[in-house]
Design goal:
single chain, about 200 residues, Rossmann fold, 5 helices, binds guanosine-5'-diphosphate, GTP-bd, G_ENGB_dom, septation, nucleotide-binding
Length: about 200
């Protein structure tokens, strides 16, 4: 299905711009610069499908991509968070948009939360994990940039992340390690996306 048509549908800076709930959705979340655009592009084998989002003050929006013709499911690129210099009202806007989306979206089957392999789960990430748990939206951790760390460090991060999510009600216990650069973990990620939207 990832070899077939995938097309940008629309951006929603606000809930009134959300597309209809025609099909299941799987969303991607992560702090700015975690490698979300790179991973979406690698996942779909399309350069430039998702654009880098780490520009300060950039509009916060949800981006929807239609997968398959006929339409099978949607990928949703959530706005990045944790940008150090983000103004307060931008952070507030992010929280409102993301919270409203998570709480009102029956077709959202799972969110993949991207975490940098070098850093593990940081304070900036706990906000989204709390929101997902509170909204009872299933999520799964995807480690990014795994090529940047040694195998021993990756094993440690896997372990610490597993511990960190153990008691979180909506967390999927299995973690996927990926590298957009090296193509690592992409088949597993594709399978996880398909599993999410076909459940
Ligand atoms: P976004 O802000 O989360 O969309 O992050 P980007 O996809 O723009 O990536 C941020 C930076 O990390 C860019 O300089 C990318 O080239 C780099 N990057 C992304 N993925 C990888 C990866 O798998 N390996 C390495 N080494 N660098 C990566």
């Amino acid at each position: 299905v990832f070899a077939g048509p995938i097309a940008f549908l629309k951006s929603a800076p606000d809930l009134k711009f959300l597309p209809d709930m025609a099909v299941n959705e799987v969303a991607f979340a992560g702090r700015s610069n975690v490698g979300k655009s790179s991973l979406l592009n690698a996942l779909t084998n399309r350069n430039g499908l998702a654009r880098t989002s780490n520009t300060p003050g950039r509009t916060q929006e949800l981006n929807f991509f239609d997968v398959g013709d006929p339409l099978r499911f949607r990928l949703v690129d959530m706005p990045g968070y944790g940008y150090a210099k983000a103004p307060k009202d931008m952070v507030r806007k992010w929280r409102f948009l993301v919270n409203d989306y998570l709480r009102g979206r029956a077709k959202l089957k799972r969110t993949l939360v991207l975490i940098d392999s070098r850093h593990g789960i940081k304070d900036v990430d706990t906000d989204i994990l709390d929101m997902l748990d509170a909204a009872a939206v299933s999520y799964r951790i995807v480690l990014t940039k795994a090529d940047k760390v040694k195998a021993s460090h990756l094993a440690e991060v896997r372990h610490s992340v597993t511990e960190a999510i153990r008691k979180r009600p909506a967390a999927h216990p299995d973690i996927i390690a990926t590298s957009s650069e090296k193509g690592m973990g992409l088949p597993e990620l594709r399978a996880a996306v398909l599993e999410s939207v076909t459940q």
